[in-house]
Design a protein that fits this description.
The complex is a heterotrimer of chains A (172), B (416) and C (164). With 172 residues, chain A is α/β, with parallel strands linked by helices. Chain A has helices at 3-10, 17-26, 38-47, 79-91, 102-107, 137-152, 157-160, 164-170, and strands at residues 31-35, 70-74, 97-101, 128-130. In chain A, helix 5 (102-107) links the parallel strand 3 (97-101) and strand 4 (128-130). In chain A, helix 2 packs antiparallel against helix 6 and helix 3 (38-47) crosses helix 6 (137-152). Helix content of chain B is 53%, strand content 11%. In chain B, strands 1-2-3 form a three-stranded antiparallel beta sheet. In chain B, strands 6-7-8 form a three-stranded antiparallel beta sheet. Chain B has a two-stranded antiparallel sheet with strand order 4-5. The chains are: A alpha/beta (172), B mainly alpha (416), C alpha/beta (164). The interface between A and B is medium-sized, with 34 and 36 residues.
Chain lengths: 172, 416, 164
């Protein structure tokens, strides 16, 4: 990392609070595996010994939305499921991010039919779209790195400015 | 601000409820409770939703709700040609994709009355058995994970990765392969793929022993599952349960043996059955099936003949890309096939194969045009799920998870 | 005796004129029966000691769109004894379409008939729990009918609101 080498020389580093918080935040993203269909298998594959999502600090897949800050929507979202996805997203605490994994979630993909939502961005704010049907695990990891890059640029006061009451309420 | 006001209002209601002296703790304990499980739940294998009525910890009523992954496959099939539909079959049972490809093209071939060359049929057998192993690896791994043995899923996915490398070599995709074509397969299986398969099979046997050691000597695992979710033989038949779940209840029915397709009649293999019909025997049976698949695969690799991989039926089978670019006649055939599609005779056929989850059947009604008039998928997971109400009634709430895991539904297929 | 002849002869003997059509395409035997006789035929096929079609594999329907008898109900039944899959069809000419449910004979028909009701709007009389299978409750259309567009009817299915 280079950080240790620096510390042995001088014993201290100079940085900003924002970058320390962003660094900590981006290295411990807890995903909420919203596994719906085929992509869920590749999402598990990304967590398996070969691809090992733990290298990026995201191996803690939590199935309760209250403990997560990244939702990976993996699979075709139907109109019936859309209500559930939105409800789970609403339960996640701020700050939170969304990966639209695969063609179906991004745009409806090959399912041009009456019951498939043509892209989850119709009801969710999406941060990263991932191409592929399904995307290979490498591609999911790439999306995760993109999210990390995005988190790295956030400032702590982006979330500080909102009053505590309002933050709490938005989580109900 | 409206939203915040609304939330405050709701909070007031909660407070009022808490302060209500008429509701006592005893009432709350005596009453039946209705809980909602899924569609987002780690153990429901995708998006199955169960509404459970509980008396204490005992399930007294259960209503499964499906349709959270209903993608309209049958409607889409009516609006595309027979060739176009092949990629869609991948995503039916997405744990063992090649089996679905094989089932679909065999059904269409039955309808239009052609047969693939012998080598292609052997390749189809090989890929179907490989994906049976892949599907059972997911089934065993996630089942063990659901009941608490998380290590297992890592080990089974390690094996799956090797399989997906083989599929990658064959079809260029890890698991949505779309490998088969009407009248043959997309590309020939080269020597390296065969060598990879052999190497995989040789490595699989010791790791199966390793997996058995982990789980079958594990008292917690066995006592958790033994005698849970017993499905008697008569009920299994009456409920239309298929595949491993049917065989674990003691019915010796496997489409590969009952109505042999491809060259399964030339292969020596056993149909494992168990009599108990509980969750544990369903688990054992999947392990046994993997071993039988290994046996079948070794025989196929020994017997696979040389020759063409696509049938010589220019009006029905897509020509190879290099021929389209260099020969006039092939170009015309390709144009006609893509624009008008295969025009099968008027009629309807039903064809079924043995998939990892059970019997997958395609019922196709043709009116002589390039698109099917109707295509009905008889999906095994849907049939197996129908047994869930009977199995869970009277069980403990924690057993519900074990029962779903042992039935092993894939919602992509059950919801269509 | 040939298996198909055995089945056809037995059904013909029992039902006579109610058996409308016998077809044999690509080695699949298919019997078309008058729609008011479907439960009797189901009982007969299941209980006859020589046939024993104990397992119902599938129930579906076909929408012929322009034909006078618009819908056809299709059943696939399997006999372990004969190792044979038989197809039964019944043309439906009622409006709204309705046919007797075979759930009392084969329990597995429950979900298959619910699915067919959801997709085609064919009412199964005496069905214990005729609800929609896949589509949400409150949805008004039946997607697999030929007059339903593949892309759906805009506004028929709600989406959750998008946050600002």
């Amino acid at each position: 990392m280079g950080l240790e080498a620096k510390l042995t020389q001088d014993g201290f580093i100079t940085t900003t609070i924002d970058s320390v918080i962003a660094w900590a935040r981006k290295s411990s993203v807890w995903p909420m595996p919203m596994g719906i269909s085929c992509c869920a298998i590749e999402m598990i594959a990304a967590a398996d010994p070969k691809y090992d999502i733990a290298r990026f600090g995201s191996e803690v897949m939590r199935f309760t939305p209250r403990q997560c800050d990244l939702m990976i929507v993996a699979g075709t979202v139907t109109y019936k499921m859309a209500q559930v996805v939105r409800r789970i997203y609403d339960q996640m605490p701020d700050p939170k991010w969304v990966i639209a994994m695969g063609a179906c979630t991004s745009s409806g993909g090959m399912y041009r039919s009456y019951n498939v939502v043509q892209g989850i961005d119709q009801f969710l704010p999406v941060d990263v779209y991932t191409a592929g049907c399904p995307p290979r695990p490498e591609n999911l990891l790439n999306a995760l790195m993109t999210i990390q890059e995005k988190i790295g640029k956030t400032k702590a006061r982006d979330y500080q400015n909102r009053s505590l009451k309002e933050l709490e309420l938005s989580q109900i | 601000m409206d939203r915040i006001a609304q939330i405050y209002n709701e909070e007031k209601i909660y407070k009022k409820l808490l302060e209500d002296k008429n509701i006592t703790i005893d009432d709350a304990l005596e009453n039946e409770m209705v809980i909602n499980m899924g569609p987002q739940h780690p153990a429901t294998h995708g998006v199955l939703r169960l509404v459970l009525r509980l008396d204490g910890e005992t399930v007294t009523g259960i209503v499964p709700e499906l349709g959270y992954l209903h993608r309209g496959y049958e409607k889409m099939a009516e609006n595309m040609s027979y060739i176009e539909y092949i990629p869609h079959t991948d995503r039916l049972d997405y744990t063992g994709t090649m089996c679905n490809n094989v089932a679909y093209v065999l059904a269409v071939e039955k309808l239009i009355g052609i047969e693939a060359p012998k080598r292609a049929q052997y390749i189809r057998m090989i890929v179907a058995e490989l994906s049976r192993i892949a599907a059972h690896m997911v089934a065993i791994g996630t089942f063990a994970m659901d009941v608490g043995a998380v290590t297992m899923v890592m080990w089974t996915f390690r094996e799956r990765e090797k399989l997906q490398n083989i599929f990658d070599r064959l079809a260029g995709a890890r698991f949505t392969t779309s490998y088969t074509r009407i009248g043959g397969v997309a590309s020939d299986m080269d020597d390296e793929a065969i060598a990879m398969t052999r190497k995989f099979l040789e490595e699989l046997e010791p790791s199966l022993v390793e997996m058995d050691k982990l789980l079958l000597g594990n008292r917690i695992f066995i006592e958790r599952l033994e005698g849970i979710g017993i499905l008697p033989k008569e009920d299994a038949i009456a409920l239309g349960v298929t595949g491993p779940n049917l065989r674990a209840s003691g019915v010796d029915y496997d489409v590969r043996r009952a109505k042999p397709y491809l060259f399964y009649n030339e292969i020596d293999f056993k149909i494992p059955t168990y009599q108990q019909g509980d969750a544990l025997s369903r688990y054992y049976l999947r392990g046994d099936e993997v071993r039988e698949s290994v046996k079948i695969l070794f025989q196929c690799l020994d017997k696979i003949p040389q020759g063409e991989v696509n049938a010589n039926e220019p009006k029905k089978v897509l020509p190879h890309k290099t021929e389209i670019y260099s020969k006039m006649e092939e170009l015309i055939h390709d144009f006609m096939l893509i624009n008008q599609g295969i025009n099968p005779p008027v009629g309807d056929t039903y064809f079924s194969v043995e998939n990892p989850k059970g019997e997958l059947g395609f019922y196709i009604v043709s009116n002589g045009t390039g698109q099917p008039w109707k295509l009905k998928i008889h999906s095994p997971s849907f049939c197996n799920l129908q047994a869930i109400s009977q199995l869970c009634n009277g069980a403990m709430v924690s057993d519900v998870i074990a029962i779903i895991g042992s039935l092993d539904p894939v919602m992509g297929e059950a919801d269509k | 005796m040939n298996l198909k002849e055995l089945i056809t002869d037995k059904v013909k003997e029992k039902f006579g004129a109610a058996l409308e059509e016998v077809s044999d395409f690509r080695d699949d035997l298919c019997l078309t029966i008058k729609n008011n006789q479907i439960v009797q035929l189901a009982k007969f096929l299941k209980e006859d000691t020589e046939l024993e079609f104990v397992m119902l594999k599938d129930v579906t329907a076909i929408d012929w769109a322009t034909r006078k008898k618009r819908f056809t109900a299709v059943y696939h039944v399997y006999s372990f004894k004969l190792n044979y899959t038989l197809r039964i069809k019944a043309n439906i000419d009622d409006d709204p379409p309705a046919i007797e449910s075979v759930t009392p004979v084969w329990r597995s028909a429950e979900w298959y008939e619910r699915e067919t009701w959801d997709m085609y709007g064919i009412k199964f009389i005496n069905h214990p729990d005729l609800r929609r299978m896949y589509m949400p409750e409150g949805f008004e259309h039946h997607p697999l009918r030929k007059d339903f567009p593949v892309l759906g009817i805009p506004g028929s299915l709600p989406l959750p609101y998008k946050a600002e």
